[in-house]
Amino acid sequence: MARPEPLTRARRRLAGWTVAVLVFAAAPALHAQGPPEAQVAGAGANGVPAASPGLNLSAAQNPFLGGVVAGQATPGVVPLSLADAIARGLKQNLGAVIGEQATRTASANRLMALNGLLPNAYGRVGEARQVVNLAAYGFPLPPGTNPLVGPLDVVDARVYVSQTIFNWSAIQSARAGGEAVKAATYSYRDARDGVVFTVASLYLAAVTGASQIEAVQAQVKTAQALYDRATDLKTSGMVPAIDVLRAQVQLQAQQQRLIFHRNEFAKRKLALARAIGLPLDQQFDLSDKVPYAALAPASLDESLKQACASRADLQAAQALVRAAEDTRRAALGSALPSVGLTADIGTIGLTTSPALRTYSIAAGVRIPIFEGTTVRARVLQADAALQQQRAQLDDLRARVDYEVRTALLDLKAADDRVQVARGAVDLASQQLAQAQDRFSAGVASNLEVVQAQEAVATASDNCLSSLHAHNLAKISLARALGVAEADASRFLGGTP
What we know:
By secondary structure, the protein is an alpha+beta fold. Helices cover 60% and strands 13% of the residues.
């Protein structure tokens, strides 16, 4: 009689693998409309920026913000370019590590699914002492004869082989396992794109923080010079004491802004170090400034075509739909007959020397006749999972379209913001210079100077914010197109 196939367990394992791949494929997707970026804080009262919202998600909620620390901190300050940060993130970022291991898990599960179609062989060597009751086996014995024979020492060395000849359900389960491996591989590619986007976003935020510190330091020097000038003019009796007080208040406001931005910059560097697995006590400098570089994106139609061809998460979703279709066919196939072969060959005897070779070969057909509603329930479950996968695929297609359109709009708006912000900085600088001249000439109080300083500070913050938004829009477009890992440097304007 043929050995029945363990189809129930195989299908349960396959369902578990499919769910695991689904969770992995959905969770790591980190797309342009919701990046874990460090936002540039705007100016608050007295020129002091309001509390920065920081990162949108913690590392406990988003694995892309975490990393596996490799190595120990080295003495001195290490230069860190954007390319170095991305390369390190692709190796040490927690999202990349989880994605790689999920791919290995899917490959292992596929091998387990193939086990139902491959030959199974094992050997057994045993020795037993037996006492046999001949009467129990129906041997006629003369009256008064002892029916017990033995004890006998039996030595048996044997190899057992089993092979599935045809099992439609197992075949489809193996195919589903192969599609699950493809889905995990695509999900890993998508995770690597997510790592590039996250690391680039954090790097850009840190670079913006460094630029903000430089801008505020310049404003502190200007405020200090104006305070010294007001003090000298008051000593000469040319201005009242309130002008000195205004200048002192403005100087302290700029000093507060400097303290705030230094703290924000330090935290952004820590967030970047966490994402790339760098020891938090390692001192490093950002060697790339990532300046403004205009980007002429492709047309909307070309961008949508590229996204449909390049987005790994879309390809993963398509593979999961095919896996769900194979799983449904496997559920339907559980109602079909299956053919199997079993065989064994070995030697058996009272001792090893006179042992004789024996063998057995059996082929059998397993025909499900009545299994209650089990098959129907499996088909319903597989069909429901298939419909869910198809719905998620349709939603993902719409989301890809939305993200590409949104990224193109953000890029255009960010580019316009940069142009306007740069013009505003020039105008505010001219306004400050004229206010200083009027104050030095004694034709105006330093109230105009304080207002002009506020205008310069606001324009500077807006300019840095627009530059950061423009660079972030470019890397967001690369992420939306599915080419963040391959073309990040090109989209950011030739940054190495």
